[in-house]
Amino acid sequence: MYAVERHDSIAELLRVEGRVVASDLAERFAVTTETIRRDLDSLEQAGALQRVHGGAVAAGHTSVTELSLAEREDQQTPAKSTIARLAAHLVPPTFVGSIALDAGTTTAAVAAELTGWTPATPGVLLTVITNAVPIAALLQHSEHIDLRLLGGRVRGLTSAAVGSATVEQLTALRPDIAFVGANGISAGFGLSTPDELEGAVKTAYIRAARRAVAVVDSTKHGVEALSRFARLDELDTVITDLEPAADLAGALRDADVEVLVA
After folding, report:
1. Is the dihedral of CA 31, 34, 35, 36 positive or negative?
2. Looking at the domain that runs over 69-261, which CATH code has it been given?
3. What is the Cα–Cα distance from 170 to 201, expressed in whole angstroms?
């Protein structure tokens, strides 16, 4: 395969997956890792990608890049749906208690799975706490859900309440389960997001809950956004759509985090 053909293939992989690993590319194209590094250097000079440790991410996918809610809704939809279905199994009809849903498209998919939640015992309500306006709108008419919407300054980009008021409300709560999304999850950096205000709310969810559950699709594996909001050992469970790579899987195992693959 000529270099230009490899470059085209790498660019397409980045378009679909958002990230490539140099060692995987070397095996895929039956070339040395040095050849792949030269390919990645050329593509970076052309503005097609950005080099990161061990590989590259698509151009624009930096630590501070943050897509709007509308832009993210169409990304990885099948994966998010399968993750959401598995997450909903943690809230069976026999569940009695409260859950918290962080802002995001994957947590919104979890909310969609719970819109028809019905208790095994008549009269029991499922308490749902959220700082996400779209999630509140989705659940507001659910017959068996007691909805609690947190206040704060609403970010237009994510339609989420953020700020000190939001965090303060969460510190006074103790939900049984918190479902939290992330822009990245890595072995060395933990869970991260581009915006520090969003990160502070995510931290508050994790610290408040009796059980902290991260819902992250496989495109977030190995990714490190600007602001870390939790270490791996602060999580109880990760729900994802593909088995994590060896380094992340090992770090999760060492942190005693349960990994559920949808």
Report:
1. positive
2. 3.40.50.1360
3. 8
